[in-house]
Design a protein that fits this description.
The complex is a heterodimer of chains A (469) and B (137). With 469 residues, chain A is of the alpha/beta class. Chain A contains 15 helices and 19 strands. Chain A has helices spanning 40-54, 86-96, 111-119, 137-148, 164-171, 193-210, 216-219, 227-240, 300-315, 323-332, 341-362, 395-398, 403-408, 435-444, 446-456; strands spanning 2-9, 13-20, 25-33, 60-68, 75-79, 100-105, 124-127, 155-157, 177-179, 223-226, 251-256, 261-266, 276-279, 286-291, 365-371, 374-380, 389-393, 426-430, 457-459. In chain A, the strands form 4 sheets. Chain A has a 6-stranded mixed sheet with strand order 14-12-11-17-18-19, with helices on both faces. Chain A has a 5-stranded mixed sheet with strand order 3-2-1-4-10, with helices on both faces. In chain A, α4 (137-148) links the parallel β7 and β8. Chain A is globular, with a radius of gyration of 23 Å. Mean pLDDT of chain A is 91; it is low at 464-469. In chain B, 41% of the residues lie in helices and 23% in strands. The longest helix of chain B has 12 residues, at 18-29. The model of chain B has no long low-confidence stretch (mean pLDDT 93). Chain B has 6 helices and 5 strands; from the N terminus they run βαβαβααβαβα. Chain B is an alpha/beta fold. A 5-stranded parallel sheet of chain B has the order 2-1-3-4-5, with helices on both faces. Chain B has helices at 18-29, 43-53, 67-71, 74-80, 101-110, 123-133; strands at residues 5-11, 33-41, 57-62, 87-92, 115-117. The radius of gyration of chain B is 14 Å and the shape is globular. Classes of the chains: A alpha/beta (469), B alpha/beta (137). The interface between A and B is medium-sized, with 25 and 22 residues.
């Protein structure tokens, strides 16, 4: 049979997924430890060996595609002018490209800031500043500073188009640069797609080569994108569909990992009630936020810090536990697996805290303003109140006996009356971990990706069909 | 000649959108590049917009009588943000009730506004003044 092979180089596991092209189903999946210190092909071959022991039929692999978040993923520094405007737009573009945004800088950079950038182990810099025809001094100053300090990572320039030529002159022969469209061409309207695409193509060409992955390129058709970008792509594909295949409409994905919690939302997020004024920067249709302080293991101590016993109490009988001990245990033993009933309850409560806080930060807020004309409602960010679907992925949700309870923590409650969290969404799960693979598939055959996503993303408590374990 | 950029908006907890739309239309027709930040805008919104768009002037509207409170410190904030010579215009019903216009005018001039307009001013007057102030008349 003809198959596609999808590979996901994660920080811990290399996951492989074999898809039957004719039947549009998953033949088998497997995983092995990622071997980034030596040569990632070792881990890949281990995973493939295991995979093919399960497959009886003759397999002809038509295409091998991969995404990667190994070796810390794609690390980006975003630079803009005003913190709430171009710097924020640049940060959103980088997040949407699947990057980890190490730091965001704004206004004219000084020497110590550029030294900080130079000494960081960042993979790429996204340089923005000014609307088209607007401010050009700042981005030119910052370009000159980067050139002066001989920054040796690629710089994606996505600022005021009017000074693109000057920046080419500044960077010529000194800095590797890529000019793309402005992330904020007009005030408050954002244009993140071209910057995302540029980042993705640079990632594909060279970033992966830097991190012990030199040999992979030869054996596969290419590493297309960072894993989070692939998940966002899958979310977009499932939501919007194609011209032949209907999508399911607006949705959000909650991905609770060991170090971070990601939320991806697809939807305009326009106000769900009348008479609400919108404020702030325009929201991207496909939006990703990453909470670096919310995760089940590496970030467990910061979860405690972010939640405090007040939020924790909502989900856990805190009298039963020595909280400090439990969080520290998970932080120090990142491979800890909850087996006792008590530990499982604690892990699930932590997951609920991550889901709760990350959705609160992702969703917009509506504020009441008391004016001489009466009460006015003003909205910042996306309104997700009427969002129809929330999809869960990541080990703690997928392996839970009651994933719905974890996902319910993402919904609106009177504890945060100004938050625009989803009110009554339907809960779905990525039971077979197909999201990143389907993001890759959508680069090859989008309609097939829509059909397979509809098949493998199931209702909480529902069964999949067609899977051969 | 390059188009001059004007940041336009209604300051404070004020949602009067009609006049703002008329100003947007008239300024655009007069050949300006208008950056309209809309209603419910804070001083910070005006200033951030002016920085990113490299604006030449800021036109502040206030229709609900609280303009004096909302505009206080705006010139200082502009200077702090590096907008050194930006033109600041204000107009509308900028104070409560019927007060002596000379006093109101002086108050806003002292606050650092270049031009201060009473209710009922025609749009053309403001546009002509700005052309003069920008040296493009």
């Amino acid at each position: 049979m003809d198959c596609y092979l999808f590979i996901d180089f994660g920080s811990t596991y290399t996951k492989v997924t074999l898809v039957d092209i004719d039947k549009e189903e998953i033949v088998a999946t497997d995983k092995a430890y990622t071997t980034v210190q030596t040569d990632v092909t070792i881990g890949l071959n281990n995973a493939l060996d295991r995979l093919f022991t399960k497959v009886k039929d003759d397999v002809r692999i038509v295409k091998k595609l991969a995404c990667s978040s190994a070796a810390g993923g794609l690390k980006i520094i975003a630079i803009g002018l005003v913190p709430e405007l171009t710097a924020e737009a640049a940060k959103r573009a980088a997040l949407g490209a699947g990057a980890r945004v190490i730091k965001t800088y704004s206004h004219n950079l000084n020497n110590s800031e550029v030294l900080e950038i130079k000494n960081s182990d960042v993979d790429m810099i996204l340089l923005a500043g000014g609307t088209d025809g607007g401010n050009s001094e700042c981005i030119m100053h910052n370009a000159e500073m980067l050139a002066k300090h001989e920054i040796d990572v690629p710089v994606v320039v996505a600022g005021n188009k009017s000074c693109a030529d000057n920046i080419v002159e500044i960077f010529q022969d000194k800095v590797e640069y890529y000019i793309t469209e402005n992330v904020m061409p007009n005030l408050k309207s954002i244009n993140v797609e071209p910057a995302r695409e540029t980042i993705r193509s640079i990632f594909m060409r060279q970033i992966v080569n830097a991190n012990g992955m030199e040999n992979v390129e030869k054996s596969i058709s290419g590493i297309l994108m960072p894993t989070p970008a692939s998940v966002l792509k899958a979310a977009e594909t499932l939501s919007l569909g194609t011209k032949d295949e209907d999508g399911i409409g607006d949705l959000a994905i909650v991905d609770i990992g060991g170090a971070t919690t990601d939320i991806h939302s697809i939807g305009e997020g326009a106000p769900s009630r009348a008479g609400v004024y919108l404020r702030g920067l325009e929201e991207p249709l496909a939006k990703r936020t990453v909470e670096g302080d919310l995760g089940m293991r590496y970030s467990s101590l910061s979860v405690y810090e972010a939640a405090g016993s007040k939020v924790l109490k909502k989900y856990l009988d805190i009298e039963e536990y020595d909280l400090e001990y439990e969080f520290t245990k998970r932080h120090e033993h990142t491979s800890f697996i909850a087996e006792t009933d008590k530990d499982i309850r604690f892990d699930e409560a932590m997951a609920k805290v991550c889901a709760d806080i990350s959705m609160k930060r992702h969703a917009g807020v509506v504020e009441e303003i008391y004016s001489p004309l009466g009460t006015i409602l003003s909205q910042t960010g996306k309104d997700l109140m009427e969002l129809p679907y929330v999809i869960g992925t990541g080990g703690v949700i997928v392996n839970s006996k009651n994933p719905q309870a974890i996902l319910e923590a993402t919904t609106f409650t009177m504890d945060d009356p100004t938050s625009l969290k989803p009110r009554k969404p339907e809960f779905l799960i990525d039971k077979e971990y197909v999201l990143s693979a389907m993001g890759l598939l959508s680069m090859v055959d989008k309609s097939m990706a829509v059909r397979m996503l509809k098949k493998y993303i199931v209702k909480c408590g529902g069964n999949t069909n067609g899977i051969k374990e | 000649m390059e188009k001059k950029t004007v940041v336009l908006g209604v300051i404070g907890s004020d949602v009067h959108a009609v006049g703002n739309t008329i100003l947007d239309y008239s300024l655009t027709n007069a050949g300006f590049n208008v950056v309209n930040i809309g209603v419910l805008s804070s001083q910070e919104d005006f200033i951030n917009a002016a920085i990113e768009t490299n604006a030449d002037a800021i036109w502040v509207s206030s229709l609900y009588g609280h303009g004096e409170i909302d505009c206080r410190g705006m010139r200082e904030n502009c200077e702090e943000a590096g907008l050194k010579d930006i033109l600041l215009y204000v107009g509308g019903n900028i104070v409560v009730g019927k007060q002596d216009w000379d006093v109101v005018h002086k108050t806003f001039k002292d606050m650092g506004f270049d031009r201060v307009y009473p209710p009922g001013t025609s749009v053309e007057e403001g546009i002509n003044d700005m052309k003069k102030d920008l040296g493009i008349a």
